[in-house]
Amino acid sequence: MERFTPDQAEELADFLTSSDWPFHSRVPDRSTVLRQVADGHWDGPSAQTFWIERRGVVRLFDLDDGSPLFDLRIAAAERGRGLGSRAVGWLTGYLFETLPANRVEATTRADNHAMRAVLAKHRYVLEARYRQTWPDRAGVLHDGVGYAVLRQDWDSGSVTPVNWEF
């Protein structure tokens, strides 16, 4: 992984506007990406972004609240080749090695089966279902799902199931 720097704003804008992102409700236009970079959205006090072999990008955010999240985007031509899985494994280790976080969180649409399989492979556990919360570009609402991996599970190679008893 190569750390994104703000002087690469044009390259990031090219990348984000040149591919289809079927599980993102908003695909930013070039000017939005450039403005976001200037505002620290992609690299700032609570966010870091990394290039994934220039075939993808991962934005780590909420780095200052103990439960960081990430946004992973793999170019359409590169999907299904294991790049996303390698990125999730890397980013999870990176976050646990560099932050005092107890957990790393991930959300995706319920129908994003590839991402859900990647999360399960890396010991992320399904913790939530958010009914009719994730709009697609046509405005149709889909369910979202929330996953997390605990530091203790990452360190031990185990999975602590969710206790659904109240």
Automatic annotation (TrEMBL):
Q: Report if keyword Kinase is assigned.
A: no
Pfam families according to UniProt: Acetyltransf_3
The family database entries (InterPro entries) matched by this protein are listed as: Acyl_CoA_acyltransferase (IPR016181), GNAT_dom (IPR000182)
> Locate the N-acetyltransferase domain: which residues?
1-166
Which SUPFAM superfamilies does the record associate with it? Acyl-CoA N-acyltransferases (Nat)
Gene3D superfamilies in the record, alphabetically? 3.40.630.30
Superkingdom is Bacteria
The GO terms describing molecular function are: acyltransferase activity, transferring groups other than amino-acyl groups
Q: Which UniProt keywords apply?
A: Transferase
Q: Which organism is it from?
A: Lentzea tibetensis
Q: Does the keyword Transferase apply?
A: yes
Name of the featured protein: GNAT family N-acetyltransferase
